[in-house]
Amino acid sequence: MKKLLELMSEQFEKAFSDCGYDKKYAKVTVSNRPDLCEYQCNGAMAAAKEYKKAPFIIAEEITAKLAGNDMFEMVEMVKPGFINIVISQSFLAAYAEEMINTEKLGFAHSENPKTIVIDYGGANVAKPLHVGHLRPAIIGESIKRIRRFVGDTVIGDVHLGDWGLQMGLIIEQLHSEQPELPYFDESYTDDFPSEPPFTIDDLEKIYPAASARAKEDAAFKERAHTATLKLQEGYAPYRALWKHILNVSVIDLKKNYEKLNVSFDLWKGESDAEVYIPDMIHNFIESGFAHESQGALIIDVEEENDTKTIPPCIIKKSDGASLYATSDLATIIQRTQDYHPDEIIYITDNRQEMHFTQIFRVARKAGLCPDTKLIFLGNGTMNGKDGRPFKTREGGVMRLEELIASICAAVYDKIMDNRTVSDDEAKKVSEIVGLAALKYGDLSNQASKDYMFDIERFASFEGNTGPYILYTIVRIKSILEKYEAAGNDLNGEDEHINTVQTDAEKALIMEAVRFNSMIEAAYSELAPHRVCAYVYDLSNEFNKFYHETSIMGETDKKRQAGFISLLKLIKRILETSIDLLGLSAPERM
Ligand code: ARG
Question: Ligand 1: which atom is nearest the Cα of residue 356?
Answer without folding.
Answer: 11
